[in-house]
Amino acid sequence: MNYGNHLGNDHLLSIIHETRVQWLNALGCTELDVGGCGLIMADVMIAYKNEGFYGDDLLCAVFADEIQTSSFDVLYRLSTQRKGERLLIAEAKTGMVCFDYQARKIMPVPEKLLNKLRSISPGSN
Fold first, then answer.
1. Angle, CA of 65, 66 and 69, to the nearest 5°
2. Angstrom distance (rounded) from CA 81 to CA 120
3. Domain carrying residue 106
């Protein structure tokens, strides 16, 4: 909770990070190994739609989008159930770049990850 008595932006960014870590884990990856390289977050965008409050159970839906040669976007929709209705709290995007931490250079998206991302991308259906 922040001074406005609602979910603070710094905490929402932490929630997004944890969501991405769990999502990558479900894909059989980590941020340090997505099939031969790691990931760096190049940018982040958060659009707040409603206030989040202490005690809200957040549902975080995750999608891959804008898959490029060495990068892709992760899209997030964070919502809660309040008074019997689903309420959208925020939408977010993180731009992820494939990166070889030892060589300190950008790498292509590994084939293993590319296939998984394409299978769950909104544009793939």
1. 125
2. 25
3. 9-124
Question: b/e per residue, 6-41, with b = 16+ CB within 10 A?
Answer: bbeeeebeebbeebbeebbeebebebeebbebbbee
Q: Show Cβ contacts of residue 67 under 8 Å, excluding neighbours closer than 6 positions.
A: 109, 114, 117, 118, 121
What domain count does the chain have? 1
Residue pLDDT, tens place only, 13-43: 999 999 999 999 999 999 999 999 999 999 9
Q: Does 1 reside within a domain?
A: no
What is the Cα–Cα distance from 79 to 65, expressed in whole angstroms? 20
CATH number at residue 80: 3.10.129.10
Which residues are CB-neighbours of 115 under 8 A, at least 6 positions away?
Answer: none
Identify whether 4 is part of a domain.
Answer: no
Q: Which amino acid is at 59?
A: L
The pTM assigned to this predicted structure is 0.90
Computed over its alpha carbons, how large is the radius of gyration of the chain?
16
